[in-house]
Amino acid sequence: MRWALVKVCLAVTTMVVVAFAVPLGLVVEEMARDRALSNAERHAAGMAPTLSITTDRAELSRAVATSETGGDGRMAVHVPAVGDTGAFEVGDPRAGARAVEATRKDGRARTAEVPGGFVVLQPTALSSGTAVVEIYVPEAEVSNGVTTAWLVLAGVGVALVIGSVAVADRLGVRMVQPAKRLVGAARDLGEGELGARVPEEGPKELRLAAVAFNSMADQVVRLLANERELAADLSHRLRTPLTVLRLNAASLGDGPAAEQTRTAVETLEREVDTIIRTARDAKPQTAVVGAGAGCDAAEVIRDRMAFWSALAEDEGREARVAGVERPVRIPVPRAELAAAMDALLGNVFRHTGEGTGFSVDVHSAEDAVIVLVSDAGEGIADPEAALARGAGSGADGSTGLGLDIVRRLAESTGGDVRVGRSVLGGAEVRLWLQRGSPRGAGSRRGHRGAVRRRLSSR
């Protein structure tokens, strides 16, 4: 199948290249010929003013010699008989007498083929008859640039054929080698690539093997994610005593011992941030959770609010939670939702002053769930930059993740994240989670409208 696809693509591309390149090359040849003959006609017409003034042989000889083409021996003038003066020719004539007479008789310009090229014959009416100006156009001038054009077209054609064969070869590999993908994914998983998955496609036996492999990989990811969440949670719990230490250090006044204490506290805070950042960044992306799996968002939010309430009480923050009285099922793992809530609530504590209140509101509809995290701080000056992946600065007091964890969670369900102004006066982060499988943009807009109408009616 792989080589058959390559042969078909080679044949089709070759026919297309020939069908377009050959006519285009012929057009280029015709354009070059027309350009050369048009220039010759222009030079011939330039002798008309001189012929209208004089038909003296000496004067015409000087005019021909000083012209652009006459100096190269490419111009000739055929003057008819005038009175007692017989007909004569000036320059280097190449056209036959028959062609000259036919041009004089018809009174129209014509082109005749001569050895080595072409001649353009331009008639000019005089009081005593019709003079004919002859311009010789060499074959090299008629075909000027044609060879280069053919070479360019040939090069483009060869490049297209090579490119099409390469693409066809890659497509053939993807079509006939699903087993190699399974082997590669198994090797990657063994080397620590925890995000390695196999598309569940191909023959039935390979599809079943891919399903089993993906299930095993998901189980490994969940086990490692639980360990990393535990490390991150334990590190978060250190923030409360660190806050007390920082406040006590600030009241020590000046002196070497006080300065050393403050430096030690700052160092310890940076180390805690490093642990959190390492645990979060090392967390692998998992596949979209299937139907029937997931967690209770209300239970997870209650648990995380209980965790952060200790630090909120120490800093004099008023914390409020609403909409978590009843179970709210969503199709995401519990560990991922907990990590997202920790990121949102951690941002409130890191980027607002002590005593700043915050709230978490959960709104549930048939097909979607909205989680609103609001605070009474100064708000977010640049929401678009805050939502950018990897936009965190990594400065002291920040794990450098921004809202990337939250955004990945929302996109895994087909939802999104919005940042705006809250009713408390500060920032509001709206986490939109779809309960069904991810849908298109038009379908999501319809669901959002239904949820907004439901929320506005409350």
From TrEMBL:
Enzyme type, top EC level: transferase
**Keywords per UniProt:** ATP-binding, Cell membrane, Hydrolase, Kinase, Magnesium, Manganese, Membrane, Nucleotide-binding, Phosphoprotein, Protein phosphatase, Stress response, Transferase, Transmembrane, Transmembrane helix, Two-component regulatory system, Virulence
Which InterPro entries did the record assign? 2C_sensor_his_kinase, HAMP_dom, HATPase_C_sf, HATPase_dom, His_kinase_dom, HisK_dim/P_dom, HisK_dim/P_sf, Sig_transdc_His_kin-like_C
Where composition is biased (Basic residues), the residues are 442-458
**Gene3D superfamilies reported in the protein's UniProt record:** 1.10.287.130, Histidine kinase-like ATPase, C-terminal domain
Q: Which organism is it from?
A: Streptomyces alfalfae
Could you list the residue ranges that cross the membrane? 149-168
Q: Give the Histidine kinase domain ranges.
A: 233-437
How is this protein positioned relative to the membrane? Multi-pass membrane protein
Q: Which cofactor does it need?
A: Mn(2+); Mg(2+)
Query: Per its record, how is this protein called by name?
Result: Signal transduction histidine-protein kinase/phosphatase MprB
Name the catalysed reactions: ATP + protein L-histidine = ADP + protein N-phospho-L-histidine
EC number in record: 2.7.13.3
Which cellular component terms (GO) are annotated to the entry? plasma membrane
Q: Where is this region: Disordered?
A: 437-458
Q: Where in the cell is it found?
A: Cell membrane
Q: Where is the HAMP domain?
A: 173-225
Q: Lineage of the source organism? A: Bacteria, Bacillati, Actinomycetota, Actinomycetes, Kitasatosporales
The record ties this protein, via CDD domains, to:
HAMP, HisKA
Q: Which GO terms describe its molecular function?
A: ATP binding; phosphoprotein phosphatase activity; phosphorelay sensor kinase activity
